[in-house]
Amino acid sequence: MTKSELIARLAERNPHLYQRDVERIVATIFEEITLALARGDRVELRGFGAFSTKTRDARTGRNPRTGDAVRVGSKVVPYFKTGKQLRDLINGEASA
Amino acid sequence: MSEQTVTRAHLSEAVYQEVGLSRNESADLLEMVLDEVSSALAKGDVVKISSFGSFSVRSKGERIGRNPKTGEEVPILPRKVLVFRPSQLLKARINEGA
After folding, report:
1. Are A78 and B6 inside 8 Å of each other by CB?
2. Domain match, A96 and A64 both
3. Contact A77/B at CB under 8 A
4. Are residues A52 and A15 in the same domain?
5. Which of A10, A61, A68, A69 has the most CB atoms within 10 Å of its CB?
6. The pTM is what?
7. What is the pLDDT of residues B5-63, one digit of tens each?
8. In sequence order, which ranges of A1-96 are alpha helices (DSSP H)?
């Protein structure tokens, strides 16, 4: 399912809304999650999962083509931990 | 940096501010988004949200684990796990702090 398919599904379930508004709802949700992570905040959606960031230390990597050592600076990476309810749903143990 | 936790309440407030539906309906729509993503994943679909990232389900085989307290060997049954792969754009924005 892509973002546009998600928007189409929601528009179908909400015929009273303009497609434009459904698009803005979806965009706003993912934009807010992104902004929160960029601030260093975590986003906790009980039952679904939690988004957070982790810091990766600087390291010396290698250019795989030439084998040269390259300095790789420290960076922040997004991380998602699946919520219990969603994990159960995926494993076919739907809990109410 | 004082780390804060953003919850459903914050996200539905943002939808309320941005789109102008009622607060109740904003909360419902957020829930529907999470529902749709969850049920697609439950069917084994990959969910791709451009400029954010993709969610997919990976199957893991059975392996032998150990009860760390008793040292007893216990089989860990085959299971499915959800993997989130952030998009390049999300990774870039998080490192720029915007």
Report:
1. no
2. yes
3. yes
4. no
5. A10
6. 0.89
7. 999 999 999 999 999 899 999 999 999 999 999 999 999 999 999 999 999 999 988 88
8. 3-13, 19-39, 84-90
User: What is the 3 state secondary structure string of B24-82?
Assistant: HHHHHHHHHHHHHHHHHHHCCCCEEECCCEEEEEEEECCEEEECCCCCCEEEECCEEEE
Provide the domain count of chain A: 2
Domain residues for A65?
A: 44-96
> Is B21 in contact with A21 (CB distance < 8 Å)?
yes
**CA distance, residue A15 to nearest chain B CA (Å):** 13
DSSP run (H or E) holding A83: none
A10 and A52 belong to one structural domain: no
Secondary structure letter of residue A2 according to DSSP: B
Residue B36 near residue A9 (C-beta atoms within 8 A): yes
Beta bridge partners of B86: B53
CATH no. for residue A4?
4.10.520.10
Residue of A nearest to B36 (CA): A6
Same domain, A55 and A96: yes
Residues A7 and A36 in one domain: yes
Give yes or no: residues A50 and A88 share one domain. yes
